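Session log. Operator J.P. requested a structure for one protein chain; no other inputs attached. Running the standard single-chain path with C-alpha cell output.
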Amino acid sequence: MADVPVGILAGTPSETEARSQWRLVLRRFLAHRLAVAAGVVLVAAYLFSYLAEPLTGWGYKDLSPDLSQGPSGDHWFGTDTIGHDMFAQSMRGLRVSVHVSVVVAGIATVLGSVLGAVQGWFRGRVDGALGLLVDFLLILPLLPVLMVLGTRTRASGGSSLMFVAVIIGLFLWAPLARVVRGEVFSIREKEYIEAAEALGASNTRIIFRHLIPNAMSSIIVYATLTVATAILLETALAFLGFGIQPPEVSLGSLVDEGRDAARTRWWLFYLPGAVLVVLVLCVNFVGDGLRDALDPRRERRR
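Structure written below.
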C-alpha cells in the first residue's frame, strides 16, 4: 500500500488549528458554571414547554370551569377570569417568545454580519452609504417606531408572530454591522487576505470565506445577546398592546393582562413575569459565558 501523506490524515494545519481553537473555546465555556447552568435551564424550560399540556391536561386555549382560582395541583399557575390554565398559557408564551427572539437574532445577525463586512471591505462610497444607514438606525428611537408600526398593523387585523419578529430584526442589525466593520478593518490587512487577492479570489469569496468567519466570535456573542434584547422588546410591545395579538399569547401579553389584578390575583401577573425574568437571565448568562470563552483576554484582565 502506498504511503498516505501525513497532511491527508491529520488535515491541513489551518483546519487542525481551527479545531483546536474551538475545543479550547468549548473548554472555557464549560468552565463557566453559571453559563452552563443557565444553558441547561434554558433548554430544559423550552423542551418542558411542549410537555405542559400532557402533564397538566390543559391546553393554552382550553377553558376550565375553575375561574380565577389560585395555584393548585390541578392548575399549577392558577387560572384567569375565563378559566384559562395559566401554566399552559405561560409555557405557550415562553415558546412564542423564544421563537420570536430566535428569528429576530437570525435576521439581525445575518444582516449585520454581511453588511458590516461589505462596509469594511469596500470602504469609500459603500462604507459612507451604509455608515449613514447604520447611524440612522442607531439614533432612531426604536420602541416608538415599533409602536407606530404595531398600531398600523393592529388596525389592519392584528400582528402575527412572524411579522413582529421580522420588524424587530430589521431594526437590530446596525450595532453588529458597526462591530463587524471594525473587525474587518483589522482583518483586511492580514497576509492571508492579501494572498487571496493575489490569487484572484472574488470579493464575495473573501467576504464569506475569510472576513466573516474570522469575525465569528463577535458575531456569536452578539447573536446570543440579541435573543435577550428581542425577548424584552417583544415583551414591551405586548405589554403596551402593540405586539402579538390574541388568540396567540406571549409572556409580555400575559404580564399585560395580569397587571390590573396584581394585588388581588397575584398569580396572573407575578408567575408569567417570573418565567420571563428567568428566561432573560438565562440567555444573558449564556451570552456572558460565550463572551468570556471567545475572548480569552477578558479572563486575563480579571
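Operator note: Residues 1-15 have pLDDT under 50 and may be disordered.
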